Amino acid sequence: MFEWKTGYLINYEKVAFTINYLRTIAPLAKIVWLGPFVEARVNFRDPPSIARDAFRMNPVSLHHFKALDAEIAKEVAEGPQTFKYLSFYDVLKVDQYFLLTGDCLTFSDPDHLSACGEELLGEKLKAQLPWPNS
Q1: Are 38 and 88 in contact (CB under 8 A)?
Q2: What pTM, to 2 d.p., does this model score?
């Protein structure tokens, strides 16, 4: 599980590589980069603890992935706008209560969306795509 004391590092070299690659292939296809998705990082082997914590996401995970998302968005904005960057946070309105959205437990384990989580993402993502009939 993510903990405050462990910290994190953003791999700027890989971010730059990905941005350059997408800019290279952008003339060939419509490109949308959906930013990094936060991981729940809660203990799914202990459902009572998840319930006791009001089905909240791991706050460290929220912080780290939001920082990564913001850094990628900044790097993308600094160059030619040849592809669209969509923030996972902006599309899904992720907050500490995202783990349980309506009657959907959005993750099936610490770092994979559940079937209903994927459906929720798909519906919201479709509305954000920059071209019709996507």
Answers
A1: yes
A2: 0.83
